[in-house]
Write a structure and sequence with these properties.
Elements: E1 3-14, E2 26-36, E3 40-53, E4 59-60, H1 67-79, E5 86-89, H2 91-113
Antiparallel strand pairs: 1-2, 2-3, 3-4, 3-5
Length: about 120
């Protein structure tokens, strides 16, 4: 298969209180999934988010969010513009297709000439 990578598309500081340590230093990150294969690079439409406290280094899951944190996250979700979902074919894909076309052409030529 290929590699998967979560690429940060937006990072925003939040000044809300952390539910774990009650400091006001948190970071909200939005990720988009990218898959890298031998023949392609695919960008997924799937966007995930992660809220991390910079003081206690804990990931704050949505179950522990307060109403203030929830409102801030909703605000930043509207501002996120993910990359368009698409597939980029690499040069190895085009070489593979070209070799396939040449092979089919050679087989058709051999059949027409009676060498087959």
């Amino acid at each position: 298969m290929g590699k998967q990578k979560q690429v940060v598309i937006k990072e925003a500081p939040l000044s809300n209180n952390c539910p774990e340590c009650f400091n006001q230093d948190m970071t909200l990150r939005f990720y988009q999934k990218h898959r890298f294969g031998w023949l392609y690079h695919r960008i997924s439409p799937e966007v995930t988010r992660e809220l991390e406290c910079n003081t206690c280094k804990n990931v704050i899951y949505p179950v522990k969010w307060t109403e203030d944190i929830d409102r801030s996250v909703e605000y930043y979700e509207k501002a996120v513009r993910p990359e368009r979902a698409r597939i980029h074919f690499k040069s190895s894909f085009y070489v593979f297709v070209l070799l396939g076309i040449c092979l089919v052409g050679a087989l058709v030529y051999m059949y027409v000439e009676g060498l087959f």
